[in-house]
Amino acid sequence: MTSTQQLRQQMADQDPEYRRLLEEHQKRAQRLDELARKGWLTSEEEQEEKRLKKEKLQLKDQMEARARTHGA
């Protein structure tokens, strides 16, 4: 486990909101992996992929902000 993964796990253990954000982030990452394994995407799947990428980035930003708040 990398230090980033350890930090995320520690934050998730201590902070229920961080844990929720991490779980949502992981769900989107899993779905993006599923879409990436497909040979081709329908237009609906392409739209879903774009939406998931944006949501995943927003969740990551929220997680990082929360981690900074706890570290201060």
Fold topology:
Blueprint: H1 3-14, H2 16-37, H3 43-71
Helix pairs in contact: 1-2, 2-3
What does this structure look like?
This protein is mainly α and 72 residues long. It has one domain (3-71). It contains 3 helices and no strands. Helix 1 packs across helix 2. The chain is elongated. The two termini are 24 Å apart. The model has no long low-confidence stretch (mean pLDDT 92).
What would a concise description of this structure say?
By secondary structure, the protein is mainly alpha-helical. The protein has one domain.
Low-confidence stretches: none
Strand percentage lies at: under 5%
Class inferred from helices and paired strands:
mainly alpha
How many E-type strands? 0
Rg, Cα atoms, Å: 14 Å
What key attributes describe this structure?
72 residues, 0% strand
